[in-house]
Amino acid sequence: MAFGTNYQPEPRFIELGPEFADPVEAADFPQHRLIWRDQEAARSVGLDGLSDGEWIDHFGRFVVLPGMNQPPLAMRYHGHQFRTYNPQLGDGRGFLFGQLRDDQGRLLDLGTKGSGQTPWSRQGDGRLTLKGGVREVLAARMLQAQGVRTSKALSLIETGEKLIRSDEPSPTRSAVLVRLQHSHVRFGTFQRHAFLDAPERLEALVDHCISLYYPQLGGLEGPERVAALVREIALATAEMVAGWMAAGFVHGVLNTDNMNVTGESFDYGPWRFLPVADASFTAAYFDQTGLYAYGRQPEAGLWNLKQLAGALLAIGDSDSLTEAIRAYPPAFAAAQQRALLARLGVQAGEEGEAARHMLDAMFAFMARSGVSWDGFFHDWFGGLVSQTRALAGPRADLYQGSDFTEWLGWLDRFPTDRPERLSHPYFGQSDPASLVIDDVEALWAPIAEADDWSLFSRKLAEIDQLGDALGHCPPKA
Question: Which residues take part in binding ATP (predicted)?
Answer without folding.
Answer: 90, 92-93, 113, 125-126, 179, 186, 267
